[in-house]
Sequence to fold (834 residues):
Amino acid sequence: MKKLAVILLLSVFAFSLISGAVSAQDSIVVGVDAPPRTMDPYGSDADSNLSVMSNLFDGLLQRNTAGELLPALATSWERVDDFTWRFTLREGVKFHNGNDFTWEDVKFSLERLGNPEVSEFLAFGGNIVSVETVDGDPWTIDITTEVATPFFAENLHQIFIMDKESTEARNQGEIGTEPIGTGAYKLEEWVRGSYLMMTANPDYWEGKPSIENAEYRPISEASTRLASISGGTLDILQGVPVTFIDQVRNNENIELVTRPGRRSIFLPMTNDEDSPLADIRVRQAIYMAIDIEEIIEKVMNGQASPAAQIPDPPTLGYSEEIERLPYDPDRARELLAEAGYPDGFDLKFDGPNNRYVQDEEIMQAVAGFLERIGIRVEVDSKPMSIFFEEVANQELDFYLIGWFDGSYDYGRTFTQLLHTIVPERGLGGLNGARYSDEVLDSIYDVATKIINPDIRGTNLQVLNRLAMSPEKLAVVPLHYQVDSYATYRGRGINFTPRSDTWIVFKEISYDN
Amino acid sequence: MKTYIARRMLQGLIVLFIVSFIAFFIFQYLGDPVLTLAGRYATVEQREEVRSLLNLDQPFYIQYFSFISNAVRGNFGMSYVSRVPVARLIIERLPASIELAVAAELFAVVVGISLGIFVAAKPSSLTSKFFMTGSLIGVSLPTFMVGILLILLFSITINILPPTGRGNLVNLFGRWRSGFFTLDGLKHLIMPALTLGMFQMALLFRITRGAMLEVLGADFIRTARAKGLSSRIVLYKHALRNALIPVITMIGLQFGQLIGFAIVTESIFQWPGAGSLLLTSMYESDFPVLAAYIIMVAAIIVFLNVLVDISYALLNPKIRYK
Fold:
């Protein structure tokens, strides 16, 4: 069925003709792959939702297209001590309903963030102890956290500030459908499953954005998304499926825009003592049996780059010194024999089939490589709702997963994915294969106590290097995804994709 | 007659209960909604807090009973994901679904029955043979393929019909957004309606043809012809009336499906109807929406079934007394 659809779409592109539709310079339509769920900025931590929120609301801080942290509702910030962060707030900002932005809105918002009835940011919100003014100055505030959180500020671009008065006065249904923020755009109309229209906020503190009317159009079906952009209904398309990359490249109407994605794809492995995977030679064998270049070329259609570690380059803790083990199936077979498995062994391989680009296909390819060195792999791919439950229940041995850290901090990644499971401290929550290594854990513990970001960065690099060293191989890294967009040619659209995949309309403009 | 209707209604209610139980039972295995709701980085404690807020820590039978007792009062709870009342979410989507189903049904009925009559009247003509072969394709082509072919032809190659959404809408009675009254709305409706109605059109065509051929061979038709009635009157007045009973049954039974389960068509054309809500809710393990939705569609289908049964009884007194 799927194959047939692919072939049909190929012919769609072969037939593709020039369309007559010309869009006005004051409006823009962007097709996205996932619909927003709610207009409550804390109601979803999915990037598809945060993307919309970033237009309607502001955080204390924001990130530009390159991922650099910049002032927004706060003009400056510093870490005072382990637990305290000081912010100077921007004066003269107004919410869409005319209310003034004050420190009480910040206090209210951050408290709301820890409320399990409305928030998906419980871990971050629950960690905030107090928000107080400094020496009675309403434009300087101190935020204290319960646990020392070195990456606190790094996360604030996705924590949006809400209006205290209107949020308290309205019920959750209204809050979830009629957002009142300080953002560059105001919500005009949201028809669930169909479109979301916004108009420029003339009083925006950065100045009115150049495009007056902006529209999100979620289109979940990949083939329809492509038809829409090649017919000119859309100006920008987010999420070009890798299977259609060549057709998009050859289509005269549209231009392919790509950037290295933040997300890496990798294979966590258990080190339970009774598992063959506990033997480092077996881990090396699995790593060396996989030809990542072939996966990238054949499965990812070239839209990926090899990874040697979990974090991506802008993340604190990324190390350039880590290199991939070479692809060497002969050596892999020897290693297996040395480890006492000359005839291989049986291995269950789990993963999602609707979460990452080509996830199921990658799993099939990996299984094929492992079969070649004698490991008999049983591939079990399933919908993500079921897969992530198994990860959270820590009942897997060997699986495929992807990750990028919204706070650009490898320390946080480590606590979730590789730290020994300690439920009461929230450690190892997504360590689905129960990986545990005392040495790595103790290096991490040191890192949490370091305030200076440079020293902390060095420490996290050491942690990362050791985790990926041939003596440990906490995971087998595969590749980084590439984010692909298409823009309609000839309309003079200036669009730079963001590292977080958000569509932020104030950053988009037309020529002339 | 009254007891007959009452009995059919009661049977319908029992079916609804069974459906709700099965639906609720299956959803236990659809994945854990708490994982997304507490956020990626939540601790085990925070997850458990969310779980107890949603009453998901209760045993199955308690969850089911509280669901049913609320549902009977028309309260289907809040969506886990969008945190607004479920009933509102579904009702919001219904106009789009109903308009699509009506348009698809209209297309299926008008084209299907006309072709059926034509082919039955002239079974050996070349055109008839062409239509018969065509109907086989209509029955066997999967919906997604019909949709993609239409997009290929009308949106890409000749670019006269838009591939997604509903276009300009008119607001009726303040809450019913209708695409029936604008040119743009109708243009958006054509391809989804053809896609959704294709299978049923082919089916109605074949059923009409079969029923017509059977009736046309009956004695009373021969008598009518022998009386010297025109072939037109014989065809429409005598044959068609008698052949329509199975056709009407089919229309009644399938209409509910068109409203509730147009999932593939809706996702191809990004039609903001109830089917696409069902699909996103499944991905997000949004149980309250799924449960309410399944029960609602089951209720529609059961209701249409009861209507069909009752109309049978009205048409044919023998059935009532069985």
Remarks:
- The two ends of chain B are 11 Å apart (CA to CA).
- Chain B touches chain A through 60 residues (CB under 8 Å).
